[in-house]
Give the backbone structure.
Amino acid sequence: MTRTLQAMKWPLDLPPKVEMDDHLRRVKGLLFWHKGAGYLSSLLIHLELVWDFDAPTAWCNSVQIGFNPYFFLRLPTESRVTLLGHEIYHDGFDHMSRLGNRCPDRWNQAADYVINLILKNAGFTFEEMDPLLDEQYADMSTEEVYDLLPKLGKPSNPDSLMPGEIGNDIKPVPDNFSKDKQIAKIITAKQASKLAGDEPGTIPGEVQIIIDNFLNPILPWPVILNRFFVALSKNDYSY
């Protein structure tokens, strides 16, 4: 659900698009100076940044990051960098395709708690923002936080948001974007982080689990046993 700009009543007149794009380029450049820049920047080059006048705040779908220009430009510059990093981390955690059958609102909240603690510990600022931040979720995976959150009776209503608040910002991955391509992007970002000299712990263990599960999938024992007997039957005959 989205709301119109008229309903938002953002107290800001927008500059020309070329100037808006310059602000966005500056924020992309400033991201390189933050902790974890190697990982985030590697993911960023695969994401298209777009202006979305219908978005409540911002969103990511693993292919694009969309920003409501009114929301983006009313934030201080460093908070804009935080917003960009936040959306990139959604991509880096593969939060979109990991949703499964979970409640989307609750999953989004859990993802935000995890990401915002990482950003806080990396020195990002949340000036004039109202993030979901709680130290009780430190060192937890998104699934663990999700299980601890109360069940939500109703979907979140973007119309109730005040300027500065973050609403649901996880969008479904486009149908033509494969899981293999997403994981390959995350693996490349992990390698880029190492080459860039990012500090140990920059990449959360949750991300490593995603990579390991993809590279070394756990097969049910009937599948493994079936493969064994199929291979055996080709080389061993009895009458």
The mean pLDDT is 82. The radius of gyration is 21 Å. The beta strands are 48-51, 58-60, 64-67.
